[in-house]
Each structure stands twice: as C-alpha cells, then as structure tokens.
Amino acid sequence: MTGMNTTTPRDHRTVLVTGAGTGIGRATARAFASEGARVIALGRRAEPLAETAAGHGDITPLTADITDRDAPERIVRAVRDAHGRLDVLVNNAGIVHGGPLGTLTQEAVTTQLATNLVAPVLLTQAALPLLEAAGGVIVNVSTSVGQRAWPGNSVYAASKTALELLTRSWAVELAPRGIRAVAVAPGAIDTPIGEHQGLTPERTAEVRRWQLAHTPLGRIGRPEEVAWAITRLAAPAASFITGVVLPVDGGAVVA
Fold it and tell me: What digits encode the pLDDT tens for the residues 40-69?
C-alpha cells in the first residue's frame, strides 16, 4: 500500500473513495476535492489513481486491494496517520463478471461478492471509530437495475442489492452513534466497466442499446452526475437524510 502524504491542511473534511481510478470513483474524488475536501483516492492500480489526482492537490492516491485480508485495518490506519479523521467513506469499488446461470464459475461468483459486498462491510467496520468521532457519512454505490430483474447479470445485481439492504440497516444501527448511511444507485453511466468486464466492442454496443431502450431520458449518464448526487447526500446540509437509496438512472428504475 503506497502513496500517502501528510502535508494537507487539517481544516477540511477527509473523504475516502474506493475504486477511484476510473469512472464514478474518479469523478467523485475530484468533486469532493473541488469542494475543498482532502480526498484519499483508493484503488488497486497506481497509474489510474495518479491520473485521478493529476491537477488536484487535495487528492492523495492510495494503492491497495480492498479484498486483501488485512486491507481494512491498513487503509484506515493510513487515513488516520495522514489526516487524523475520516468524515466520508464512499464504497464505490465494484467488479462485474456477467453470465447466465449455468455458465458461472466459482471464481466469477466469489470475486464479485468479495469486492462488491464483503470488502465494503469490513472496510466500513474498520472505519467506524473515525466515522463516529467525525459524525461521518457512509455512501454506498449500488446499481438501479439491481432493483429489478437482471438476466445474465444476477450475481452482480444481487451483490449491489445486498449493499442497499446494508445501507438501510446501517442507517438505523449507526444513528445513535451519529453516523449516517446513504446510497446512490446509478443506471447506465459512461464508464469503462464494459472494458473491465472484457466485453468486445460489439457486445458493449449491444449493452448500450439495451440500456438506452430502458432509460426514459434517452441517454447515457455521466460519472459527474453520479458524483454530484454522492457529494450532495454526504454534505453537512443533508444531515437529516439517512437510509435512502437514490437512483441516478434517467428514470430506468421506474419505467
């Protein structure tokens, strides 16, 4: 795990964003930094994280695999040593290995659950003392399609739907400790997730056509639009909002 520095002033909120190397995570890290927050951009690959931080002095890359057994404690220790606090934890990291039932391998199932569900649970748990001290916010990133049937992508959808239940449960469980828990559920967003999934350009185009056909606003969303929702839900002005799952999907979930 590499990349922390201790030179950032201590008069702003500290935000940890997982999966910050690309897409929604990158946009979210930059959105918080633009508001003056000190942002720890967490991911497995150093090069994309450096691109996220480029030109943003308040973003510090932190390279780690959140599925490693000792990662939660190491990550939280690095945040505490660098900044002494944590105000917002954004559980954004996720992976997709699609396929219909009958084609799924054990690795495809377990890796998705490890990254999309187990890792956020353990990282959030490790961060609780810092979040409680700051009166902090947990923001989980789900998927709007996970609220409906998703043939051919059921494991990914199930992992994200479980994250929504965690959000509601944590909102109630952690309220007495002064911690809020909220979630956003993006729809079709212009991110490299298809490339990361190993889809061919033809298959990616086919998926996009399906997404457009099921999005009433008739377009693909931008990562910055999801980042806006995340920063608003995490803002101090939203202090009476907890337990919500906000779709950012062009109307897909209600169509």
Answer: 999 999 999 999 999 999 999 999 999 999
